[in-house]
Design goal:
Structural class: mainly alpha
Number of helices: 4
Oligomer: single chain
Number of strands: 0
Length: about 80
């Protein structure tokens, strides 16, 4: 069976992977393989889909009055 060695993983990523493996009741090795399989099997998304997703996320953000933000920035300054 082929194998892969992954070098240079940050300690934070290693801990996140270990936590995810624990939650899924898998070994770290099996969790990494599952992540790779999920990523490799997911179809590529079109630019139009990505733009639509970004627009939907933007629409969920609260309204920001930039004039009011500028006013708050200037208040109290000489």
């Amino acid at each position: 069976m082929p194998s892969i060695t992954i070098k240079g993983i940050s300690p934070a990523l290693h801990e996140r992977l270990k936590g995810t493996a624990r939650r899924h009741h898998r070994s770290l090795q099996n969790e990494i393989v599952a992540c790779l399989e999920r990523h490799a099997e997911s179809p590529p998304r079109s630019k139009a889909d990505l733009i639509a997703e970004a627009a939907a996320l933007r629409d969920r953000l609260p309204y920001v009055d930039h004039d009011l933000v500028d006013e708050y920035k200037r208040s109290g300054r000489p």
